[in-house]
């Protein structure tokens, strides 16, 4: 079978394998790294006169002939010129340029520390075009409750359970789709009550445990309960034989693990049903919703970091900014916010 990295030069393949095997990066992350490096070395070939400077032909430039000698000839000035090029010629916004700069800096760090191609990383002083810190979009508590009352799909119990997991657990789309039946377990707590936990596989193949609240447990139990009237429920008669062959919690109509794309469609359908289809929301925004609601209701940011599976606390800090912006807006909405006391003094 043809691999999407077959046309990459060996030195980039080595980096890809390192990201996949040693660092445990997701396939999407690795694809993005490769796309950014491929764009740079296409630019490199144009600058070195080995490819035409024709925008219509840019995506056809083959980089399989890039050698170790070519890579060693790259300097900081060329990379800075590349970042100007993708802005002016390819319309890359700040976020896209930031990602390309990170990809190149990480690539040359690998070549320095692991391939020993350089004594000092030539991109160590590459300044990153910092992306604008945009506040995450999310649903309010009222909108979240409205969404939960408008899940009237062909597989209502399954889809309701998925939305409840998103809004309560703050999990990523890939984490939800990857849940297996054996990942949810129950144990007796100190008070003798059953405690349900969910094991999810996050970024970098890092596992974490999420404690399921009553809403999640009830939706999960309802979804697994036999129901002959719902052909898409996991244990319904139509899926019973097929589901026995699949460990996934959430199944498609065919009895196979539901796909990321199908979940995106279901979320879009539910948002449309409650009139929230034109505000740029997605499964990832439901993760933001869960995080925002938890923070607003007193969850410490360090605890929230663990719930969300963030590697760095700085990533979680964005939810403190959300709260600050709400405080600012609340002050502006005070009916006295525009009153000038001096104008009301007696003349």
Would you mind describing this structure in some detail?
The chain is mainly α. Helix content is 49%, strand content 5%. It has helices at 10-22, 27-47, 68-72, 76-88, 94-113, 141-148, 156-169, 173-177, 214-224, 240-243, 260-273, 283-296, 301-308, 313-316, 318-333, and strands spanning 184-188, 194-201, 207-211. The chain has a three-stranded antiparallel β-sheet. Helix 4 runs antiparallel to helix 5 (94-113). The model has no long low-confidence stretch (mean pLDDT 83).
The strand order across the widest sheet is: 1-2-3
Major sheet details: 3 strands, antiparallel
The total beta strand count reads 3
Low-confidence stretches: none
In short:
With 347 residues, this protein is mainly alpha-helical. The longest helix has 21 residues.
Q: What key attributes describe this structure?
A:
49% helix; three-stranded antiparallel sheet; 15 helices; mainly alpha; 3 strands; 347 residues
């Amino acid at each position: 079978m043809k691999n999407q990295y077959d046309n990459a030069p060996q030195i980039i393949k080595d980096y890809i394998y390192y990201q996949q095997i040693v660092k445990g990066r997701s396939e999407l992350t690795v694809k993005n790294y490769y796309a950014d490096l491929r764009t740079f070395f296409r630019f490199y070939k144009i600058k070195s006169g080995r490819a035409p400077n024709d925008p219509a032909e840019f995506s056809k430039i083959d980089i399989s002939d890039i050698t170790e000698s070519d890579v060693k000839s790259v300097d900081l000035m060329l990379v800075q010129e590349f970042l100007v090029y993708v802005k002016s010629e390819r319309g890359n916004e700040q976020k896209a340029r930031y990602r390309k700069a990170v990809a190149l800096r990480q690539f040359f760090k690998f070549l320095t520390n692991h391939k020993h191609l350089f004594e000092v990383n030539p991109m160590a002083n590459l300044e990153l075009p910092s992306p604008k810190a945009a506040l995450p979009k999310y649903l309010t508590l009222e909108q979240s409750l409205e969404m939960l009352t408008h899940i009237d799909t062909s597989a209502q119990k399954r889809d309701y359970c998925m939305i409840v997991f998103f809004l309560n657990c703050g999990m990523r789309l890939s984490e939800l789709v990857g849940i297996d039946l054996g990942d949810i377990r129950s144990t007796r707590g100190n008070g003798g009550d059953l405690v349900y936990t969910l094991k999810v596989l996050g970024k970098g193949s890092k596992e974490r445990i999420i404690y399921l609240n009553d809403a999640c447990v009830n939706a999960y139990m309802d979804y697994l309960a036999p129901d002959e009237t719902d052909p898409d429920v996991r244990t319904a008669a139509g899926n019973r034989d097929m589901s026995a062959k699949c460990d996934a919690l959430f199944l498609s109509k065919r009895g196979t693990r539901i796909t990321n794309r199908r979940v995106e469609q279901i979320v879009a359908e539910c948002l449309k049903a409650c009139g929230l289809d034109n505000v740029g929301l997605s499964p990832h925004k439901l993760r933001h919703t869960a995080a925002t609601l938890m923070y607003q209701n007193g969850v410490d940011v360090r605890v929230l970091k663990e719930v969300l599976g963030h590697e760095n606390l700085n990533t979680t800090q964005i939810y403190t900014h959300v709260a600050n912006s709400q405080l600012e807006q609340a002050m502006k909405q005070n009916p006295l916010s525009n009153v000038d006391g001096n104008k009301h003094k007696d003349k």
